[in-house]
Amino acid sequence: MIDRPEGGERAVLVHVDFPAEGMQEDLAEFKELVRSAGADAVAVIAGVRHAPEPKYFVGTGKADEIRACVAAHKADIVIFNHKLSPAQERNLERLLSCRVIDRTGLILDIFAQRARSFEGKLQVELALLKHMSTRLVRGWTHLERQRGGIGLRGPGETQLETDRRLIRGRIKLITQRLIKVRQQREQGRRARQKATIPTVAIVGYTNAGKSTLFNRLSGAEVYAANQLFATLDPTLRRIQLHELGPVIVADTVGFIRHLPHDLVEAFRATLQEVSEADVLLHVVDVHDERMQENIEQVNHVLANIGGAEVPRILVFNKIDLCPGMLAHVEHHKIEQFTRVWVSAQANQGIAELETAMIEVLGRDLVERELVLSPSDARLRAAFYALDAVLSEKIDDDGCYHLRVRLPKAELERLFR
Predict the structure, then answer these.
(1) Which backbone phi and psi does 79 adopt, to 5 degrees?
(2) Whose CA is closest to 344, among 287, 279, 413, 275?
(3) Least C-beta-crowded within 10 Å: which of 74, 217, 245, 390?
(4) pLDDT digits (tens, 9 = 90+) for 218-265
(5) Rounded Cα distance, 42 and 218, in Å
(6) What is the CATH number of the domain that holds 358?
């Protein structure tokens, strides 16, 4: 569809340091993104600027340096660790004679590779189409040509207008399909709420060990790897916590600084699992030197999706990589966050984490001794359906002596 040189896997990376805090990116994370996308980084070109240059993003001298590097390494693609405008991408491709993508395009490509479920593929395609719709102009050398010739005469629109119309139609179709998928997800969420089964969502910066922790808690075999965005499709499992009963644990997509807006919008239905959870397990890679920055970035994304007020447990993972660090629990009175140090890979601190989950989830639980007459069989069945019965005795008159534990709101609802 786009008239440009075909890309390959040999990549030249471009990273520019800016003094403005909102434009700073991390070079190590950028290299990890490129590795996760499957590209082979043959060279890294770094520079410093006060502000982006309108034509090439970098200065003309740096652009010539990139062109020489591309020729020397026979690179197929140049990847910028920043967001480029469509015009800048077009100008750079003309100068360098190879594909050029920015940080947003790189993340979208990784998401396109990792999506497995029907919903995930729709979400990624929607984000890709929205991104592509602003960049169609850079690929065409015949923008003003109208379609003509035998069998091609018709609406009198340019090729670019035709492509934009087709993309708009595809976006509309995908949006309609996602609405149906979201309705199904909402039905499942309402069913869990009706059954008063609490939900615990695992969130955190990408590659913090969320899926490994999810597998350790649930006994599942979700794909986990030492790469960014190994998990895209949310996975839910039901587990049993001692003295608490059934709990739904949800594994979610990892966050990253400057996550593309189109991706946040496309995955909003998935991320709703986070905003409506009872507790968040915020997984942090304690071995990462950017730990505090990653925590702040996750908090920023949680605020954007309505999850800032959800109770959370800070889970400092990968303590096996830090000599002398042991699994333990710490109650932080000022922030009111429970902190747990674990190693999901080495199975350290998991029991302490489960205890912390029971403590946080159990704050709204009440325990009662009830006496129900034989005519209250329907109410007794409701308690069993909620898995709230701790013990039961039947006296000589046929009355049920129940000891139950359940959320206070649910107990009040049953006795209305």
Answers:
(1) -120, 125
(2) 287
(3) 74
(4) 887 766 655 556 556 667 888 888 767 788 888 887 787 777 766 676
(5) 41
(6) 3.40.50.300
